């Protein structure tokens, strides 16, 4: 029997609450379909800092490098807000992304028909929405050097972050965007700010050059600020949006609200495929954070985490049928009017994290057996 090695990193706040609902699905798949998942659980974020003094230990990094896929919950919280930049919970997530070279972050924003009312936009603008934000995840201002605060000696300090991109980094994310667009509606919108940033000029130039290999895909360029505006004005005009690390972070939170809630948006972070084995590092994480305002209350929406697991089935394990069934189960439960508080609407039944997870698991079980 195939064994599939999963590393679970639940993290902080609502991370562990959402992860528990995915663990149910993993057990279910092993039991009903003999899927052969083997899980190990590690510490990340504040939870790791409290034990190891670092937001991820070297030992857990080693597990991450050998797992077939990593499922990541969320990190951060007020308890660690005064930590130094190097030991903040978020640094564990950044180390995972950088050390595993997870350069391609797929953030699909899909508006389930049942949730069109939960969006802050009018139904007709979001009904049937299916766009993919492809965020470059290992470069740009997140990792550029220097990154420092220096004392100027006159009572002033100077903070510097540095936006850096090299050709190969833009080339590989552009290639990923065109390849993904080919499996979808064949359109890529590249967003940067070439009017102010030289990295934007280079980004635009390299994406245009890579496009020559993909004449069947339509390419358009948009300034990122205008792109943000277009995302809320007429989001269905987009298919794949490819953009840098920081713009991708902000644009995907905006896109989340088109789908009803940040609690709905999954993501996949993929590394390059090994040329001989085809294996790639991969981590799956919801777009939302640890939600300190609702953690411990049992009310968090687990769908972003569950849909991230569905992306793991698709991209790491090639279990396309199972991934489709899991997505269909999410849609079915929403259609039945079962809602967590963040996506609640009139006439629906409000449930907590565990009941939402149970309802999805029940529907999934029926589809698997
Ligand atoms: P957040 O995503 O944690 O929360 C923003 C808002 O959305 C909150 O009101 C929260 O209650 C709500 N929300 C988020 N996920 C939800 C869910 N599943 N169900 C229902 N409601 C949900 O962002 P924030 O408050 O800006 O950040 C909190 C902490 O999380 C910070 O420390 C931040 O750095 C961290 N963070 C971590 C990640 C990650 O681990 N990938 C992502 C974003 C933020
Ligand atoms: C995200 C988060 C992270 C980011 C933080 C927690 C480091 O906001 O995954 O969207 O900024 O990339
Ligand atoms: Mn973010």
N-to-C terminal Cα separation, in Å? 19 Å
Work out the number of β strands: 14
Strand content: 15-25%
Tell me, rounded to a whole number, the average pLDDT.
97
- Stated plainly, the CATH topology of the largest domain is called Isopropylmalate Dehydrogenase
Q: The biggest beta sheet, please?
A: 10 strands, mixed
Pfam families: Iso_dh (PF00180)
Enzyme class: oxidoreductase
Subunit structure: Homodimer.
GO biological process, one term: L-leucine biosynthetic process
Overview of the molecule:
This protein has helices at 15-33, 46-52, 58-66, 89-99, 123-126, 167-182, 198-211, 224-233, 245-258, 303-315, 320-335, 353-368; strands at residues 4-11, 37-41, 69-74, 104-110, 130-136, 144-151, 157-162, 187-192, 218-223, 240-243, 268-270, 282-284, 338-339, 349-350. The chain folds into two domains: 1-100 and 281-369, 3-Layer(aba) Sandwich (Isopropylmalate Dehydrogenase), CATH 3.40.718; 109-263, Isopropylmalate Dehydrogenase (3-Layer(aba) Sandwich), CATH 3.40.718. The radius of gyration is 20 Å and the shape is globular. The strands form three sheets. A ten-stranded mixed β-sheet has the order 2-1-3-12-11-4-5-10-8-9, sandwiched between helices. With 369 residues, it is α/β, with parallel strands linked by helices. It is built from twelve helices and 14 strands. 3-isopropylmalic acid binds at residues 90, 93-94, 249, 287, 289.
């Amino acid at each position: 029997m195939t064994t599939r090695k999963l590393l679970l990193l639940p993290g902080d706040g609502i991370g562990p609450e959402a992860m528990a609902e995915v663990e149910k699905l993993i057990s279910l798949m092993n039991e009903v379909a003999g899927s052969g998942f083997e899980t190990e659980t590690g510490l990340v974020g504040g939870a790791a800092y409290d034990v190891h003094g670092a937001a991820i230990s070297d030992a857990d990094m080693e597990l991450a490098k050998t797992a077939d896929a990593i499922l990541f919950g969320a990190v951060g919280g007020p308890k660690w807000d005064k930590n130094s930049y190097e030991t903040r919970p978020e640094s564990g997530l950044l180390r995972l992304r950088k050390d595993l070279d997870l350069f391609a972050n797929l953030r699909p924003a899909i508006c389930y028909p049942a949730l069109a009312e939960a969006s802050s936009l009018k139904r007709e603008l979001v009904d049937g929405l299916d766009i993919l934000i492809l965020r470059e995840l290992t470069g740009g201002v997140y990792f550029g050097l220097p990154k420092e605060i220096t004392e100027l000696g006159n009572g002033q300090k100077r903070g510097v972050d540095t936006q850096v991109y090299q050709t190969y980094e833009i080339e590989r994310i552009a290639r990923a965007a065109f390849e993904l667009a080919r499996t979808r509606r064949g359109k890529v919108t590249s967003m940067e700010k070439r009017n102010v940033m030289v990295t934007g000029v280079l980004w635009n130039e390299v994406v245009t050059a890579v496009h020559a290999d993909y004449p069947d895909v339509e390419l358009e360029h948009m300034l990122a600020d205008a792109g943000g505006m277009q995302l809320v004005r007429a989001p269905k005009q987009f298919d794949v949006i490819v953009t840098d690390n920081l713009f991708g972070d902000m644009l995907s939170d905006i896109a989340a609200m088109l789908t009803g809630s940040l609690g709905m948006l999954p993501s996949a972070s993929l590394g390059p495929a090994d040329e001989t084995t085809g294996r790639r590092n991969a981590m799956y994480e919801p777009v939302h954070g640890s939600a300190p305002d609702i953690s411990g209350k049992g009310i968090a929406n687990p769908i972003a985490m569950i849909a991230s697991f569905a992306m793991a089935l698709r991209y790491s394990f090639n279990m396309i049928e199972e991934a489709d069934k899991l997505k269909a189960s999410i849609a079915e439960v929403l259609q039945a009017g079962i809602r967590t508080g963040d996506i609640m609407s009139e006439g629906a039944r409000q449930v907590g994290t565990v009941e939402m997870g149970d309802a999805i698991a029940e529907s999934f079980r029926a589809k698997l057996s």
